[in-house]
Amino acid sequence: MSDYFGIDLGTSNCAIAMATDAGPPEILPITQVINASGIGESLLLPSSLYIPAEGEFPEGGPILQWHEAGRHSFLGTFARDRGALQPDRLIASAKSWLCHPHADRRGPILPWGSTTVQKKLSPLEVSREFLSHLLANIRAVNPAASLEHVVITVPASFDEAARALTLEAATQAGLGEVTLLEEPQAAFYAWLDNQGTEWRKQVKSGDLVLVCDIGGGTADFSLIAVTGKDGNLGLERIAVGEHLLLGGDNMDLALAHAVSEKLTAAGINLDEWQFLALVQAVRAAKEALLSNPLLQETHISIPSRGRKVIASTISAVLTQNDVQQIAVDGFFPIVGNNEMPILRRAGGLRESGLPYAADAAISKHLARFLARAKANSASLPQLTEAIGGSERLDRSPLLLPDAVLFNGGVFNAIALRQRVLEQLSQWAGTPIRELEGSRPDHAVALGAAAYARLRSTGEGIRIKSGTARSYYIGMESSAMAVPGRRPVTKALCVAPQGMEEGSRLEISGQEFFLYTGEASDFRFFQSEVRAGDQAGQMLPDTAELEESARLQIEIPPPAGHQPGEEIPVRLEARVTELGNLELHFLHPPSGESWKLEFNVRLQ
Amino acid sequence: MRRVESPLPINASSRTISARMKNSLIASGTVLLGLNAASVYFPEQNLTLAAQTASAAIGMVLVFLAIRPQPKQKPEAASPSKPATLPPRAEAEIVAFLALLQEHARLVDFAKEDIAAASDAQIGSAARVVHAGCRKVLDEYFEITPLQNTPEGTTLTLESGYDAPAFRLLGSVPENPPYKGKLLHPGWIARSVKLPRVTGTTEKRPWPVLAPADVEVSGN
After folding, report:
1. Residue A413 to residues A186, A332, A442, B191, B208: CA-CA distances in angstroms?
2. Sign of dihedral through CA atoms A427, A428, A430, A432?
3. Which of A175, A391, A578, B56 could form a disulfide with B36 if both were Cys (CB 3.0 to 4.6 A apart)?
4. What residue spans in chain A does CATH classification 3.30.420.40 cover?
5. Measured between alpha carbons, how far is residue B217 from residues A303, B186, B190 in Å?
6. What percent of chain A has pLDDT over 70?
7. A88-143 pLDDT, tens per residue?
8. What average pLDDT is seen over chain A?
9. Chain B residues touching residue A307 (CB < 8 angstroms)
């Protein structure tokens, strides 16, 4: 008898699911601080961390049984609610900082931009705090639980550095060695687990399924191909999207601004606290309007801050028209297959902070994802075959799916599911269907627990998925120096897309020179759309790549070599059993090797 | 004619209502009833029908649930001389529950405010805040379902041995069952309760504050 745990370390909320050897996985309630005087359980743990002022809780405040004295932060419901009143002390969306290439992910930078918090936390520490809390909950329910089979989900858009940091946070939290799983795949596993053997009736060989996962703060897309012969179907994840900070919260905020503007026009101005209350009220009103198209309008009440709830409550109206225009047409406009999102805001300077999506039109981001997925599939014959041959590529500038699996709270609204299907059907010129039996709220944790079980027992179908991107290391070209021109950085492909867990690849036949004993710059690049690149392939420049990390490392000279000396090395890429990408520099004469993890750190 | 469904949750014996829950139920029920009484007192006020009926119904049922005898309790266990004062812990739980209703539904503010001069529209608008918050608290911390799943107006027969505490008989009631009659209100039952546990109380302050005073800080 074993226990299998799935942890959804979400951008807005976390959840834990547990499975045993048989039966469907179940969500475990999470004990957390509910308010300033109470501890309770909830199925979700809001991913909010609140750092109180030293003088705020002189007696320590509400304490959980596993908390040691001297704790300086709160997690979950209380953190979210209290943090809304003191945004300067609230850390939210910490997960998105983990995959922010320009942030110091090990540095104490959160709460971002806070001027009051003395002791800030790093994105890595915040993830560790959440994982420790979730582990304490597992331990509280089952002190003897074996942690052999724990799966943590990450966005498909997480690059290797963010994945490695998540693994590191898990180890620091005491979870030991865990396995990572992409969230859209987890949603797909939940669907498979829920359907049992029936899933084969909903898809057939040659089908392409879009997993469309839109939560509170992020949108995450993946394409899964159904391969193989009928009766012996296989599944392969063939494309993942970019990290997109756009979700249901943006809709609520947009609607709240619309209502607030109407009030301003009527001479009523809301303070910050009232605006927060408005956002909450608008969320409920939006859900009511989207679930009932016959409802013309919903009244909203915004209480005042003071004691007079009757005399000072402000009334507003959210109409069906507002919701259709702003939430449906604003975020899911019907667009042509060549309409791509605006990627950067106009204006040369951007305020530092999280790179929120500049274009709210999710349909356009979807078009961009499908166009890039097409380019990627066309670059490698095996991928072209996996999607059912080149006819699919010829049909449209986009790689269009046959069916969609929805995930994330946004898609509790049927109107929004229908809108996405309408858009895809319009692009395809033929109806695109929805896979039935999705469970938008808890699927990721449930699917992760189901995956933990099937990974251990081997019973059930697995989605074939290697590394989602190809990885490159920047190389200084050995061209002749030209005054006034910096040498072009070439990019060496060190890990091709699709490398599977437990595999290694040596870049054979080539030697590279490594400076030792001096700090040197290493630049790393990645791409989601170059499946055709092979390990060892040199790209003449980095124009089409995305820079994922840049760091200064000093490699100590091996015995018998002087600092400053260049030594010849061979390169080997490995993907560990846990799905962590490592790059090894081997120096055969001395027998020494250096491991560069993509998180990115030298050991 | 339909058979009466068992109103008790599964494993009712293990889920009888504790003193702590009972107190919370009395508190919440009373407050909700009070709320409703206010709206009856001002019959022409445009409190939404939903808010009115919901608060009335929930209030009645919560009080009813709390004061009704425990169905599975043995007669000898029901001591007639209960201590008159509540243990401090139970009081703390009640105050904490009321604090939840204040936090989410502004219930204490609402009940304590003088509404004599308020317009119907103002009261209606505030009722939405109270309604949304009460609903959130009830949905989050209780699993509340109707006692009877038959629609109002259905004719029922209560056979001898029926679960008496789950019914209130109105009209001309014969000495002994079977009782045949029309269902006027299907009743409510809390099938589970998971209220937050109070922490941080001290001898000096045996229960939490109902609502802390809000201070907007502008610096040292």
Report:
1. 21, 13, 15, 28, 39
2. negative
3. B56
4. 4-181
5. 21, 50, 41
6. 94
7. 999 988 888 888 877 788 899 999 888 899 899 999 999 999 999 999 999 988 88
8. 87
9. 109, 112-113
pLDDT (tens digit per residue) in A457-483? 988 889 988 888 888 888 776 656 666
User: H or E segment at A267?
Assistant: none
**Residue A454 vs residues A15, A19, A241, A451, A459: alpha-carbon distances, Å:** 20, 10, 26, 5, 5
| Residues B51-70 pLDDT 10s | 454 454 455 445 444 444 44
Copy the structure tokens of residue B62.
């919560």
The residue-averaged pLDDT of A539-549 equals 84
Q: Which residue ranges in chain B fall short of pLDDT 50?
A: 1-17, 33-34, 37-51, 53-54, 56-57, 60-61, 63-83
Task: Tell which CATH architecture fits domain A4-181.
Answer: 2-Layer Sandwich (3.30)
Say how far apart CA A182 and CA B40 lie, in whole Å: 56
Mutation for testing the B interface, residue in A77, A118, A279, A313 having most B CBs under 10 Å: A313
Q: What is the reported pLDDT for B44?
A: 43
- CB-based contacts of B182: which residues, under 8 Å, 6+ apart? B153, B154, B155, B156
Domain boundaries, chain B: 16-70+86-147+189-211, 149-186
> Residue A23 and residue A46: Cα distance in Å, rounded?
27
**What top-level class would CATH report for the domain A204-434?**
alpha beta
Tell me the backbone φ, ψ of residue B49, rounded to 5 degrees. Answer: -60, -40
Average pLDDT of the segment spanning A19-39: 92
Burial status of residue A430 (CB atoms within 10 A of its CB: 0-12, 13-18, 19 or more): exposed
Per-residue confidence band for A380, with pLDDT thresholds at 50, 70 and 90: confident
Q: Which of residues 254-283 of A touch B (CB under 8 A)?
A: 281
What predicted TM-score, i.e. pTM, was given to this entire model?
Answer: 0.82
Tokens representing A522 are: 């290493």
Whether residue A39 and residue B128 make contact (CB cut-off 8 A), yes or no, is: no
> What is the pLDDT at residue B53?
43
Interface mutation vs chain A, best among B129, B131, B136, most A CBs within 10 Å: B129
User: Could you give the CA distance from residue A514 to residue A523 in angstroms, rounded to a whole number?
Assistant: 13
**A397, containing H or E segment:** none
**What residue has token string 């609610």?**
A81
Candidates A543, A191, A212, A251; CA nearest to A369 is A212
Please state, in angstroms and rounded to a whole number, the distance separating the CA atoms of residues A123 and A107.
Answer: 8
> Is B122 close to A310, i.e. CB distance below 8 A?
yes
Confidence of residue A69 (pLDDT cuts 50, 70, 90): low
Indicate yes or no: CB of B109 within 8 angstroms of CB of A299. Answer: no
**A253-257: long-range pairs with CB below 8 Å, 24+:** A253/A279, A254/A326, A254/A327, A254/A330, A254/A331, A254/A360, A255/A282, A255/A285, A255/A286, A255/A318, A255/A322, A255/A323, A255/A326, A255/A327, A256/A282
Residues in CB range of A292: below 8 A, 6 or more apart: none
**CATH 3.30.70: does it fit domain A470-602?**
no
Which residue numbers of B have CB closer than 8 Å to A's CBs? 96, 99-100, 103, 106, 109-110, 112-113, 115, 118, 121-123, 125-126, 128-130, 132, 140-141, 194-202, 208-209, 212, 214
Pinpoint the residues of chain A covered by CATH 3.90.640.10: 204-434
Q: How far apart are CA B199 and CA A59, in angstroms?
A: 12
The C-alpha atoms of residue A211 and residue A228 are separated, in whole angstroms, by 20
Domain(s) labelled CATH 2.60.34 in chain A stretch across 470-602
The β-bridge relationship of strands A150-154 and A179-182 is: parallel
Q: What is the pLDDT of residues A400-445, one digit of tens each?
A: 999 999 999 899 999 999 999 999 999 999 999 999 988 878 999 9
**Do residues A568 and A592 lie in contact, with contact meaning Cβ atoms separated by under 8 Å?**
no
